[in-house]
């Protein structure tokens, strides 16, 4: 029988091509970009430019229907395309408008396009799938009392949507989230338009104005109040809190503008389109610097056991990450010390300024414990991998106070003025980019006017902690 429909002919030819390609290619395997701590995270061969994520939320137990659209650029010829994705079920996949075979291997979703992709061409990928709200044990979606939030650090974004799940590949994001009309949806970025009502649901659309790592994506669904304000130089502030707690939490929310002004005095202009805190009724065991909308546990602000100065310093910690870790993303996960060390440094400086916990005392206490931390977790710039099944096990004291101790030692070595210039140049020169440990050592050397490699390497990679410049009395360690 003669086929007269061009669409039908194209569909049959595409299906035949997929069968032939699959027959000659070796079995798919998980790939990675070679990160020492997460060897199968990230994928070679392409650079993601943008994600367009659509989710339909029913409740915080039911898998969300989702569509992930990825626009990328092929860096090399690709017969297969590996994406990081697990937990969800895939219904279909397309590459450049044509159906593609899809198979799950390990924690990768492997696509076989109808025809090989040539290098240096646009790559348009569409995956229709579910997204499973698994809770904090696996990372990704975090169920709250009235909805969901997201906590993807370090390797959990691919438990929510197919992606190139490594901070070295930043991209722009668009979020389209449909939820029951009684709920409110807020994500990273800014609203594209007013929420659209259809029947008993609303669809909310947001878009980031700066590139973002997958681990920093945030989607909040719940019975929330969105509190708007204004920060330094007209910066839009946007906080998301449980609707019933808005008045009680308001004194905390009013502190953010001052925190931003304090940080800007030290490192320069806030790097993004807006900022705010997301206070969720959830138990996570951590706070998280999701870009423009930092996630906090409600219990931190409950007044039970946490002094005000401590809560404020934690708020400053997550705010500092917007510069250190978000705007300047780590090149590899071994560079995590640059994120957490800097955030801890400014947290400690803030507490020192309040007169509650002096920086020198905190650094001396860290120095006394530093060898123990290095033995347990590795040196700050070469941390040991997390144990299997412990998704946040990488976040040990050695990359927090142990890494802030490196910054203290560097300031002691080059002087306060040079150190302050270094901090400003670091976030300005790498804004919206990716940088690593050697980049930091190189810039520090430029600012200091001498090669600091021999000074920095023992602090970064040594099994034991070097002597602290300017503090010979710290040479004897105590437990």
TrEMBL record:
Q: Where is the signal peptide?
A: 1-22
Q: Which GO terms describe its cellular component?
A: cytoplasm; extracellular space; membrane
Q: Which GO molecular function annotations are given, in alphabetical order?
A: alanyl aminopeptidase activity; metalloaminopeptidase activity; peptide binding; zinc ion binding
Catalysis performed (reactions): Release of an N-terminal amino acid, Xaa-|-Yaa- from a peptide, amide or arylamide. Xaa is preferably Ala, but may be most amino acids including Pro (slow action). When a terminal hydrophobic residue is followed by a prolyl residue, the two may be released as an intact Xaa-Pro dipeptide
Outline the extent of the Aminopeptidase N-like N-terminal domain.
153-214
Asked if the keyword Metal-binding belongs to this entry, the reply reads yes
Looking at the record, the residues that make up the Peptidase M1 membrane alanine aminopeptidase domain are 259-459
One annotated GO biological process: proteolysis
**Entry's EC annotation:** 3.4.11.2
The alphabetical list of record keywords is: Aminopeptidase, Hydrolase, Metal-binding, Metalloprotease, Protease, Signal, Zinc
Q: Which cofactor does it need?
A: Zn(2+)
Q: Which family does it belong to?
A: Belongs to the peptidase M1 family.
The protein's name in its UniProt record? Aminopeptidase N
